[in-house]
Write a structure and sequence with these properties.
With about 90 residues, the protein is mainly α. It has helices at about 1-65, 65-70, 80-90. It has a domain at about 1-65. The N and C termini lie far apart (about 85 Å). The model has no long low-confidence stretch (mean pLDDT about 80).
Length: about 90
């Protein structure tokens, strides 16, 4: 009788405690994902203008570069620098 009473009290409490723990862990994971999403969203808002400005600077820099300046210090192996620049432009 004593063992039956103990099992009837402990078993439901273990099941209830296990389910509460499971749902609490799911809730914590969802909250962590939500916080990381909000942080990522906020960082994108702040970083987009900076990235656009960086791309604009790179574009302006690339507009100023002459292709012959890129191949000046490299070895051409019998080709002239001008023909190497044309080959580079043709294949890219």
């Amino acid at each position: 009788m004593n063992l039956s009473l103990l099992a009837s009290i402990v078993l439901p409490s273990l099941i209830t405690g296990g389910l509460a723990y499971y749902f609490f862990m799911i809730h914590l994971k969802n909250e962590d994902k939500r916080r990381s999403y909000l942080l990522l969203k906020e960082n994108r808002k702040q970083s987009l203008p900076i990235r656009l400005q960086a791309f604009e600077r790179v574009t302006l820099f690339l507009e100023r570069i002459n292709p012959s300046q890129l191949f000046g210090p490299c070895k051409t192996f019998g080709r002239k620098q001008r023909s190497l620049c044309f080959a580079f432009i043709k294949y890219n």
